[in-house]
Amino acid sequence: MTTAMQTHLDRYQKCIDICNKCMTECEFCLDACLHEPDVNARVDCIGLLLDCIDICALSAKYMAGNSRFAKQICGLCAEICDACAVECEKFKDNHCQTCAQVCRDCATECRNMVQG
């Protein structure tokens, strides 16, 4: 790996890792929500989980590829993660509470990356 590639990966690695963790946690939460008895009450949550899964994957991909748009994508990722966290916090099951915390962590790290 060239030095330039290593430098951008070093700079983005923490954010890539938390985006991947958030994507995985949202996938788990989505599956769990779809099997809850009150699934109809979770429509907004499910929609935001899908958005969060997609934007986290895209953010990690853009950072890994050193895209000039990585910061803009990560800024949007932070917004979506925050919205997902707010929605997940409405439900008291462990999977939603854990997902909300990971989403908050991801939003924070994405904002740090954007400002860095």
Automatic annotation (TrEMBL):
User: Its domain of life?
Assistant: Bacteria
What name does the UniProt record give this protein? Uncharacterized protein DUF326
Q: Which organism is it from?
A: Orenia marismortui
Question: Which lineage ranks, top first, belong to the organism behind this chain?
Answer: Bacteria, Bacillati, Bacillota, Clostridia, Halanaerobiales
